[in-house]
Amino acid sequence: GVMPGRAECLIATTIFTMSNAPALKFGEIMQNGYVVNDLETAAMQWVNTLGVGPFFFMEHIEFEESFYQDKPADIDMSVAIAYSGDLQIELVQQHNDSPSIYKSFRDQHGEGLQHVGALVEDLDGCLTTNNAENLKLQWGTTGAGQRFAYLATDFHNGAMIELIEADGMMHKGFAFMKSAARDWDGSHPLRGRQKT
Q1: Radius of gyration of the chain (CA)
Q2: CA dihedral 134, 140, 146, 150 (to 10 degrees)
Q3: Which of 44, 54, 143, 145 is the most buried (most CB within 10 A)?
Q4: With contact defined as beta carbons under 8 Å apart, do 74 and 94 qualify?
């Protein structure tokens, strides 16, 4: 069938939340995702103000497929990731004007906390178990095979949730970044940054 648009998702989500239906169960929130205007500037604010780092840059992420509001999306984006304890800080910069959750957030709010993330072992199973397929707003697969789905759960002042399908490689990558943060001496705060 045809997937409802954002307004319908928000109305359905609000009705679902106001009912006595059980809360959605996705597992532990492990990530705060911030939309920013400039990755390097934002990362250095975290480094200099809060002592969070180092940040690992992944620029111009390639997507095998990406959809926003049930339409193919051509999003040019980069991220920078660091850890504060067990909490992952993800900074997201979109480089083009393709419709997306990031552009929509930036247009409405400027920079700020846009989503929280949870790792799941089976994305499709998680969506089915929670009867949440109709809440998908943006989803896809990266060029590296990582599957994700952002759900329209941002009907209040909080943030939408991103479900991130985890595999062994992702767990190892995140563990490496977490270890780097734990042992960080303040040197080389920006890692993997491409020179332009």
Answers
A1: 17
A2: -40
A3: 54
A4: no
Contact 13, 6 (CB under 8 A): no
Count of other CB atoms within 10 angstroms of residue 67: 17
How does pLDDT run along the chain (196 residues), one tens digit per residue?
444 444 444 444 444 444 445 577 788 899 999 999 999 999 999 999 999 999 999 999 999 999 999 999 999 999 999 999 999 999 999 999 999 999 999 999 999 999 999 999 999 999 998 888 888 999 999 999 999 999 988 765 567 999 999 988 889 999 999 999 999 999 999 999 776 5
Neighbours of 163 (CB within 10 A): 24
Q: Cis link prior to 54 (omega < 30° from 0)?
A: yes
Question: Would you say how long the chain is, in residues?
Answer: 196
